[in-house]
């Protein structure tokens, strides 16, 4: 399937058909999820209504980690198989992942102020997610830091693979260190410990965030491919430089048609 | 093997002859440490409490300064092409260059650190741990930095980009290095933190040559 998607033109056709469906379903799932989260889900016995931030904070965190994993996998595919769209996909996904990480950190901070009494604490989970945010920023800076975009893309692929070591550290930080951030309640051995009435809205919101990411990724990839096509068209239609034209006319050789 | 030793010796001789590199790193280390009492205030209790962190952060920033000369000069004058084309595996050549870099920067930092620890009122009982932690952690700094230096060869604004890439990856050695010195000051055992620091250096030694070699080949395409 990955090879079938390698043709940029086919990707453009498929994504043109998939995009409206994906956007509408993302909007619908997010609407349903927000209704479940804000209205249907019960208030926490300890935290009261403030627990509802969890329904944004946790899916954003899951997306931040998953998007980085996606970037790392795409970078591996780009380096090993030279898949043409893998690099474009990784570059397109990075700002979205950085935005999810920022949302996770910001909502966590807003949640921590009433609950823990502090906007920030340097425990292992928060520190490693902040490091993930800087890794995203470093990746974006690196792929945009070269005049040659393919060089930037390949350098970014190597950086993404080196930084993937941070992901298990984030996931297990609450187990390996004594953290203020609570330990895992959903993705853990022994099954989730969260109540079903809260788990269902959480999963619906996570699905909505994933569909939103898919929409944004497709839009960004289509934009990048259109940009490249426009650049190639502009370069192809540029007239030959004067000196080459007069030299080839003097030599009598036919000038190659550039149009 | 002889070729590797020659790469190591060449880099070390260049670093020592130019002298500027080691002196620059040590000079920056001293200046950065000396700035903190001006900012934080000279009370020994406060300074002594944060001395471990000050020394490790300053060592980290000083190591960061010298990273771009690891590959940049040879990239510009063509020596890197010769190293990549030579029969020795590029990964081992990277290891030899990192070893020379460490010998010229990390090792002097570690040896100078007790003198600076006097300036920031670190409890003298922690001096051996300080030197050991820097000796165990600075190889990781050189190796991780080599990946970032190789990745940013030929980039616009290479210096700033290098710092942005390398500082998140420098956080683990910093955390465990400062924790080792802190533990020694508290009287608790620093051994666990020193072991983890050594493990970080060994892991960097395993991963960094491959990433750096891939990045160098990419830079020379």
Textual characterization of the structure:
The complex is a heterodimer of chains A (259) and B (221). With 259 residues, chain A is mainly alpha-helical. Chain A has one domain. Chain A is built from eight helices and no strands. Chain A has helices at residues 8-40, 54-81, 84-116, 124-143, 149-163, 166-176, 196-236, 242-251. Chain A is globular and about 80 Å long. Chain A starts with 7 loop residues before the first helix and ends in an 8-residue tail after the last helix. In chain B, 84% of the residues lie in helices and 0% in strands. Chain B has ten helices and no strands. Chain B has helices at 2-18, 20-40, 44-65, 72-77, 79-85, 90-104, 106-119, 127-151, 158-186, 191-219. The longest helix of chain B is centred in the last third of the chain and has 29 residues, at 158-186. Chain A binds chain B through residues 79, 127, 131, 134-135, 137-138, 141-142, 145-147, 151-152, 154-155, 158-159, 161-163, 166, and chain B through 147, 151-152, 154-157, 161, 164-165, 167-169, 171, 175, 207, 211, 214-215, 218-219, 221.
Low-pLDDT residue spans of chain B: none
Report the biggest beta sheet of chain B as strand number plus sense, adding barrel if it closes: none
Q: Quickly give the structural class of chain B.
A: mainly alpha
Structural class of chain A: mainly alpha
Number of domains of chain B: 1
β-sheet strand percentage of chain B: under 5%
* Total helical segments of chain B: 10
Helix coverage percent of chain B:
over 70%
Radius of gyration of chain B: 18 Å
What's the count of strands of chain A?
0
Give the overall average pLDDT of chain A.
Answer: 86
Q: CA-to-CA gap between the ends of chain A?
A: 35 Å
Q: Spans of chain A of 5+ residues with little confidence (pLDDT < 50)?
A: none
Terminus-to-terminus distance of chain B: 27 Å
Would you kindly provide a brief summary of this structure?
The complex is a heterodimer of chains A (259) and B (221). By secondary structure, chain A is mainly α.
